From TrEMBL:
<feature type="binding site">
    <location>
        <position position="165"/>
    </location>
    <ligand>
        <name>Fe cation 1</name>
    </ligand>
</feature>
<dbReference type="InterPro" id="IPR009078">
    <property type="entry name" value="Ferritin-like_SF"/>
</dbReference>
<feature type="binding site">
    <location>
        <position position="168"/>
    </location>
    <ligand>
        <name>Fe cation 1</name>
    </ligand>
</feature>
<feature type="binding site">
    <location>
        <position position="257"/>
    </location>
    <ligand>
        <name>Fe cation 2</name>
    </ligand>
</feature>
<keyword id="KW-0443">Lipid metabolism</keyword>
<feature type="binding site">
    <location>
        <position position="260"/>
    </location>
    <ligand>
        <name>Fe cation 2</name>
    </ligand>
</feature>
<keyword id="KW-0150">Chloroplast</keyword>
<keyword id="KW-0934">Plastid</keyword>
<keyword id="KW-0444">Lipid biosynthesis</keyword>
<feature type="binding site">
    <location>
        <position position="165"/>
    </location>
    <ligand>
        <name>Fe cation 2</name>
    </ligand>
</feature>
<feature type="binding site">
    <location>
        <position position="257"/>
    </location>
    <ligand>
        <name>Fe cation 1</name>
    </ligand>
</feature>
<comment type="subunit">
    <text>Homodimer.</text>
</comment>
<feature type="region of interest" description="Disordered">
    <location>
        <begin position="1"/>
        <end position="27"/>
    </location>
</feature>
<dbReference type="InterPro" id="IPR012348">
    <property type="entry name" value="RNR-like"/>
</dbReference>
<feature type="binding site">
    <location>
        <position position="224"/>
    </location>
    <ligand>
        <name>Fe cation 2</name>
    </ligand>
</feature>
<comment type="function">
    <text>Introduction of a cis double bond between carbons of the acyl chain.</text>
</comment>
<keyword id="KW-0275">Fatty acid biosynthesis</keyword>
Length: 393
């Protein structure tokens, strides 16, 4: 996983949420306010949990046969799946052969610049916090895995999805370990902190997805698409820098993200079909709160703005940018045919107008906060992950 706009690179500062209690979370859309950098704390007071009314939970439950038939086939059986070891030196060979393969890997990874490494490490750490994401999915009302081995198709999907995702962190982790370029201990500390901290899916006063699967699946659709873009870009850059193995590694991960994206997009498409207004309102709500990366709370114990620094480097290298955020949004608007939705309530229509008009506004604002971050740290920033070498933002 990975995604989305960080405040540092202009997570489009749209729709600043005010401090109102929103028990009804869908009323205000077009508060276009530039909220600027809000980097550190998230506010857990007034957390809204379980916002989904029981009739909506029934809607989710009623989709179980459809999930079995239409969503589970997006998972690949283990027999047809790649494994991290397919891409890594085989350590069970005689030592000399293993060492030769490792040397080849290291000769190529030696070509990767420090700024690229920072972004790759950030992506890897994001993948490694998978336990958090599985927990979040399992807390969406109507889809949770009640036992840990539930036969509910929703639960089967979540477990199968996590089982596939689990390979992403493993593969990137082992590659980086073998490269010898990075401070594994600092990276491992960051992973431990991140899993212990959890995640927030939106940058707002109320950063939860409220255990609400309508909001949750909008998030995962956005998320998987954004990760696909990001891993795809690290693959392209690896090739350009002269590391074809790493290009294949990032590419195979990107192709998983793409498949997962398709499944989540299809779920939201189904929700739009069976419950149009609620789903449209959920999309607007998520966009208004501003979707953020799942690794937003990352912390190495040294750099208090680690996530925004990593995001700023990703922005500068073109791995994941504010323009990509707008592109993902535009893609989803098109894919869900939001402009053509019919039968919406008047609230639903306002939500529709807001979401369909949002991408151009994001594009206008896009570079501003990145420039601000660069200005604040003109000399670059030290990253513990690469032995405190300095990298420009
Ligand atoms: Fe993913
Ligand atoms: Fe992933």
């Amino acid at each position: 996983m990975h995604s989305i706009s960080s405040p540092a690179f202009g997570g489009p500062p749209i729709g600043k949420t005010t401090t109102q209690h929103h028990h009804h979370h869908h009323h205000i859309f077009p508060h276009a306010t530039v909220s600027g950098l809000q980097m550190t704390t998230t506010h857990h007071h007034h957390a809204i949990t379980h916002s989904l009314p029981s009739d909506k939970i029934e809607v989710i439950k009623s989709l179980e046969p459809w999930v079995e038939q239409s969503i589970l086939p997006f998972l690949k059986p283990t027999d047809e799946s790649w494994q991290p070891s397919d891409f890594l030196p085989n350590s069970s060979q005689p030592f000399d052969q293993f060492a030769t393969e490792v040397r080849t890997l290291r000769d190529q990874s030696a070509m990767l610049p420090d700024d690229y490494l920072v972004v790759l490490i950030g992506n890897m750490i994001t993948e490694e916090a998978l336990p958090t994401y599985e927990t979040v999915l399992n807390n969406y009302d109507g889809i949770r895995d009640e036992t840990g081995a539930s036969a509910s198709p929703w639960a089967k999907w979540t477990r199968g999805w996590a089982a596939e995702e689990n390979r992403h962190g493993d593969l990137l982790h082992t590659y980086l370990y073998l490269s010898g370029r990075v401070n594994m201990r600092m990276i491992e500390r960051t992973i431990q902190n991140l899993i212990a901290s959890g995640t927030v899916s939106v940058c707002s006063q109320d950063p939860e997805t409220e255990n609400n699967p309508y909001l949750g699946f909008v998030y995962t659709s956005f998320q998987e698409r954004a990760t696909f873009v990001s891993h795809g870009n690290t693959a392209r850059l690896a090739k350009e820098k002269g590391d074809p193995l790493l290009a294949r590694i990032c590419g195979i991960i990107a192709s998983d993200e793409k498949r997962h994206e398709k499944a989540y997009i299809k779920i939201v498409e189904k929700l739009l079909e069976v419950d149009t207004t609620t789903t449209m309102l959920a999309i607007a709500d998520m966009m208004q709160k501003r979707i953020t990366m799942p690794a937003y709370l990352m912390n190495d114990g040294y750099d208090l703005s680690l996530f925004s620094h990593y995001s700023a480097v990703a922005q500068r290298l073109g791995v994941y940018t504010a323009a990509d955020y707008a592109d993902v949004l535009e893609f989803l608007v098109r894919r869900w045919r939001l402009e053509k939705l019919e039968g919406l309530t008047s609230d639903g229509q306002r939500a529709q107008e807001y979401v369909c008009g949002l991408a151009p506004r994001i594009r206008k604002l896009q570079e501003r906060s990145h420039e601000r971050a660069q200005k604040m740290e003109q000399d670059g920033v030290k990253f513990s992950w690469i032995f405190n070498k300095k990298v420009m933002l």
